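Suppose a colleague, Dr. K., hands you the sequence of a protein chain of 466 amino acids and asks what its three-dimensional shape might be. Before reaching for any lab equipment, you can write down a predicted structure in token form. Begin with the sequence itself:
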Amino acid sequence: MATNPYVNFSPHLIHEDFERRPPSRSDVRPQYVHHLAPKPEPPPPPEITDSITKRKDVKHRCVKFTVAAVICLLLLLLVTGVLLGYYFSSSCVHGLQCGDGSCVWESQWCDGVSDCRGGQDEANCVRLHGSSFLLQIYSTQSKTWRTVCAQGWTDVQGRASCQQIGYSKNTYFESDQQQTDPDAGFLTVKSDFNTEASILKQLVLSNTCPNNSVVTLRCTDCGSGLNSSRALGAQQAAPGSWPWQVSLQVDGSHRCGGAIISPYWIVTAAHCVVRDSSPGNWVVYAGIVGDLDTLFNPAYSVSRIIAHEDYNTHTHRNDIALMRLLNPLDITASGTVRPVCLPSVGLNFTAGQKCWTTHFVQNITEDSLHLVEAEVSLIDASECNRSTAYDGRITQDMVCAEETEADICRTDSGGPLVSLTDGLWWLVGDSIWGRSCTEQSKPGVYGNITYFMDWIYQQMKKHQDG
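The predicted structure, expressed as tokens, is then:
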């Protein structure tokens, strides 16, 4: 049995130096008694299903966020790629395109300074409008074509404007004036005109012009023809009746026809020259209606032949060419040599319009060459494209004309198709598909000169000096 340890102390176990006294409160130290605390109840086990669900939700949200971020990034990259592709492949979203694919700002167009390598930004900034040759110049500031006030205008500015179009300065004919509507505004000549600078830098915008009198400009003396019988049907042309008609010859033999458009330049068909494009092989006779006339007229040497760069021998697309003469034709000595007028902006040649075509015919039995004239009527392209005619081969760079007489047939090419409008003769086309005698039902097909005007002036300007 357990005993109390304090009760069983014997006296001899007590040191003799100590007095027997009761312990004070300070001497009593509490006896540490070890108590076993009751075990706490374990916490309830966690909800396993809820924890797994929460972890799955978090993981699912992370996956969804990652997928959404990846999709957004891919969409952003796709949009960026599309925009960059459009930027580099489009026709200059930030400006205008030069011929070599480079771009310039729109404000640099027609500012008198060539920023394109080929000068395309300054090539078509001056034009002639209508049958009166109204001078119009494109204004970069207003982004419109404006007429030029006649006040302060002289032949000096006239020559400069003609050179800007593409004519040589010594072919300049005259400047005149006419009244116009003031609503569109004007350009006026600066008082300190600089003959060395571009005409585009010599003009300023103006809302007024004295008497609303504006400039008309004739860069060459064109469009005047002598009287002809103009009888129906094909007939031999009278001398001087078609003063722009030329014979293009190689080795003394007529090869193709052509039309004079300035003292230096001849328009013909590309298929006439592509097989023999060496200028030294060609000579030009002007003012002739027969081969005997070559004995009394000079032969003009050719310095340059330019066939359209996109001419297609199979489809006859872009079937046009230019010849530049080494020396200018003398159009003042005789009325039998004179340019035909190139069509101005605003002149429209529509179906039903009467025109005249001229071409050289070789008489095999008589071994002679003579010029034939015939009246024709322009017809609509849809009619010319019928299955019984050219079956869809006629394109916008071509015009068709139907002869009034069924017995007209020819093999000559390059000759002019002209029309008389407001007292002047205008070049409508160059013969590219001369109808043969076995194709009586088919119209004649000509290159559409209006379609090629920008190209013609571009070449003339590029080769002004030869």
